[in-house]
Records
---
Amino acid sequence: MGAELTTIDRLDNWKEAGVITDAQHTTLSEIVRRDRFSLFVELNALLYIGVVSVVAGLGWTFRDYVTSLGDAAILSIFGLLMPVSFGYCFVRGPSYSNSEVESPSFAFDYILYFACLVLAATLAFIETRFEIFHGWDTHLLIAALVFGVLAYRFDNRFVLSLALSTLAGYLGLKLGFDTLDSERLRIAGFFYGAFLIGIGVLLKRLSIKPHFLDVYLQLGANAVLLATVSGVFDDDTGWGYLAVLLILSALSIYLGIRFRKFAFVAYGTLFGYAGFSIKVLDAAGDAILALAYFVITGSIVVFALVVVARTFGRDE
Amino acid sequence: MMIYPRDDERAIRVQRMVDDWAASGLLREEQRERMRLELQVDYRRTNLFLRLTLFLFAALIIGALIGLAFVVFDVEEATSSWLMFFAAAATFYLTQFVISRYRAYRHGVEEAAAVASIVFFAIGCAMFRGDFSSLLAFIGAAGASFIVFRRFGYLYAGFAAVVFAGLIPFNYDVFYTDTPRRLLAAVVLLVIFGLLRERRKDHDPDFPGDLFGVLETTAWVAIYVLANFKVSEWLSIPDEVPLFYWVSYAFTWILPVVGVMLAIGDRHRWMLDANIVMAIVTLMTNKAYLNGVQKPWDPIVFGVLMITIALGLKRWLASGPNGSRGGFIAERLLASERERLALAGGATALAPGAPQPHSHEPPPSFGGGRSGGAGASGKF
């Protein structure tokens, strides 16, 4: 057996062959040997956990001590935290740009996230104590819109996710089979997903934060397909939902291949197959038939996916 | 011996690094192209999502096939064990065949076959003596996982081998109480940890050192889970032995501290991250250990502590020569680190903080809210 090349050996060879410069060799060797070791992700994770814990603790404390603290004291604390954190973001934040903007400082994104969570808690407190919105719809819609605007203003993916999940709350759903058990929720889920895909594509076309597109598409496609596949269980309208599901799955697979977004090929395949199987197995009623169905249809899917993978999806 | 030559495995990993370096602006595009030319390997690889989908469908087919065999041949209990062993051998051979014949590398199908071989072998072992034996099942699962890991290099098989090995003592009938089970499991995992640590150091930072590094961390985390009664009561109800209880409490603090020190010394990312999580879990379970009462402001104190540590560490690192302390820096080095954060940012929409289904009923009285979803998840 010949000598096995290490990464450092390869870097040495590339330097000798003139592929990389001395300076690049030094930098890359330091990274490979871990002589330079970044704690960037770890520090960000600690900040995120810290911010979420503080806001959760505030909520818990105010819930337990609302009578002893009083509304005025609680609102004063919220009223102090919000302007300070939002003020910091507007004063220290970069100017708006349609393209991706680097965070101006290490803690900036988390101060914005904290401010948004405090805003959400404040609105919820006001609604609970004073019922000025007469229901949660307005509160959630306001929060979703404010979060959405702030996510774009400061280019923050965490806040965008908060906006989209709050919007889902407004529409009365949370992604999951258990909650999509009524026609109303199913339709809400479908339109929520369609809305996300539409708004994401529109903003991308307008070149407004095009790097956010993936968040919209991932959430939107899953919401639409999940809502549709849940309809297949319905005895009355199941076949209609299945027809829609198969069309949407085919579309997802086609667009996924066309734009080299293979997650959508996977979603289309899995949701389409699940919906189709629900109806077929419902009619089969025999264990041997059902197992044979999985072997035959599974083999067809594997063959088709291998062809797709060999033709289009070689890159990792 | 691994089926993929070590040089090929290393070339695949260096390809990823080269792409990351180029995306981070450390290499120019033409340099990347030239370097990748030297890193070509003759395997069929695929996109992660296609790989996962292929894995699922291949597993479905294999599962349905074995189910068909049982139903069609009306397999009796006495022979079912041998059928499972046969299925395990067949699927193991299938993995070898797909890799050798089609040059597949992490293509999903061959991985599903390999995982099926582990599952079938474990079930075969469990039923070997007629009645179901969980001890034999775990020994079989650990052994088969280890063989699959050694032969094909699948990290998750190695992970399974470590975890199953740690669970074997919990299935010994000779132990009727929790304390000897935990002690024996801890000894087994400690031996595994030591062996893997040595093996990792032999190869660090190259393949297979990266695999051994993850498995070493797995063994360490498993020891912690055993040591922390508050997170492993589901595994085995701890005995009421005061000495053992307080020793385990001490270890919930000792293990993360020792782990972080080892990680810093070795610059071992997996160990560092795992021990940070372990330290956080220790803080979260501390009051439960001491039979203390959780206070509403505990999360605030905890959160402020996390923020203080993050900001303090950042400032301390940044104030060092060249923004570094012993090579540790707070700044981002590679594009992949930013991608990980972006992925986490997008994923928070599906996190537990997302809102509960919205009710059009008037809200109940002020009752606490969770973060996220504009507080709609609680009873505010």
---
Amino acid sequence: MTRKNTNFIMLHEKTRKITMKQCKSLRKFFVLFSVIILFFVLFSVSFANAAVIEPKIEAKEVKRGDFVVVPIYLDTQFEEINAVEVYVNLSNNLVFRDYLDGNSIITHWIEKPHLQSSDVRRPQIKFSGIIAGGISGRNLDLVDLIFEAKESGMAKIGIDKNSKALLNDGLGTRTKLIALSQSFNILDINRKPELKIKDSFPPEPFKIYLARNKEIFDGKYYITFETKDKQSGIAYYEISEKPITFIFLAKPDINNLKFKKAESPYILEDQSLRSYIVVKAVDKAGNEQIAILPPQKICSWDDVLLLLDCILIFALLIRKMLKLKYKH
Amino acid sequence: MDRFSKISKISILASIIIFSFFVYQKIKSASVTVTAIVPGVCGNGIKEINEQCDGNDFGGLTCFNFGYSGGSLSCNTDCTLNFSGCVIKIPSGGGGGGGGGFIPQYGKIIISGYAQPKSEVTLMSDGAIKATTIAGDDAKFSFTLDNLSPGTYLFTLYSEDKEGKRSSLYTFPVKLETGQTITAGSILLSPTIDVDKLEVKRGEFISIFGYTQPEASVLISVGSEEELFFRTTSTKDGFYLYQLGTDILEKGDHFTKSKSILANQLVSNYSRVISFKVGDRTVSKEVKKVCGKADLNCDGRVSLIDFSILAYWYKRPLTKEAKQKVDLNGDGKVDLIDFSIMAYYWTG
């Protein structure tokens, strides 16, 4: 074999190697491309028309003892949602302390956020509520959950796949849901728990609704009420019933009323409806908002009879006096 | 080597099959049988499933739905939303404090739009009625709410026409900063809708009618297995009527809904859904005063009182009477589905 020939064979080998290499890389590219397409198709299918519920934690690291505020967000993915039932799983180094619903899109709570599972190793929080009229959009705040970072290590907060989001279609159709989770690190540095919420605004003005339904509360009169506080959230409600006495209809002096803690719906103590009902909403910063329901009945049958009696006696007295006067 | 190439070939083939399957599905879902107009493709001006928008049809959504404080949405050529016209307003000045203690600065929202001529428009905030007004002859309405503390509000609007029929609810969230004034304008409420027959003999006509903005284009959707679209125009007093020949419909249950298009620019979301049956006989719709769906105490409204009744029965065994009244989907229990149905019919 001549040198030329050997060179040619080497060159040929080289080009073969290059084409083999190219072929290999082309094949790799095709595999990668097809995997990407497959992933894209499956991913887009799984995300199409599925609402997303996810916890959002800004800090990646917190200190032991810190209070962590975790907003739970809803992305409706262009669906219209009007009811949610959410289960939040958390690692056992977190302790559920409270929640803030001032920025929540939930208009009425069916179940406020509470610890659902009694198993301390697998704590779970549940909440459910409706969004009257339905809503469509991104980054919609369902509620802000407050946790205490109890022990160091990785902490996880995740939405359980059994959570539900229902469409605003008048049928309560369950939509597909993507439940996401998030983790953060709790550093082994101790800190005194402290959570300050600025709130100088009172809760929103509200109305008291009087109702009676023969099938519930033994047919007794009851009231319903609900309001929101946009900053710190409602801490509790207080109620006072101030009975009116005959003729005296003046509004009660709120400072002198005796309030007691109550929740809506509340069965009225005065079933004769002859009382002023005062409901006080107090937010977590102590600001108050008051709503008053005036008496629905001014006087009872006893009062009417008493009034008639009085008129009759008065008329008789006048008659007697006039008689005496004319006699003289 | 061979195995590798086989795997790659199989994966390429699989991805092509899956991809073409979904493309086929998409094409299939887009090709609807149409009598009057042909929707189903991006660019026909009607927002459909898998489209975020189409032309000026944003499915009733505004910038507010996406956390912006104002501006207007636009639609890209591929029927995806364009947020470049949306704005986030920075809270207005504040203007120095002065001495003394803290004076809370309240915000304000101005909401305006179009309903039906002389209709009663109701504004709710977080599900509670805040104000009502009567729309003008031109269907315009306007609300101003002040003394609002900073925070997120969920505003809902609906209207009730001259005949007492209601539009669907229009809901949008607003994040209000301290002392901020937000203007939400050009809101187009959906038409009201009704039909004159509960059941119609196949081949006869059924009237689909209601009120909307004056001289607006009305798109009527009739759906069963396939969705059909028809177009009509409202009169000067906002009344619209479409006589639908039922020979094109199969026997069985059907539903209809409508949306309005004003000056080829604003598109409302769909009205409430009304159902009717195509069968062997014709049954007129009697105007009977019955309790509306989810109106549990029969007071003509779906409000906190009805919610409290439903909440009472939540997770409780239902009595016979309660089953008839509060079990809104008839599954024998009160659960999240019943609450969802109530939220759909909410009036505050």
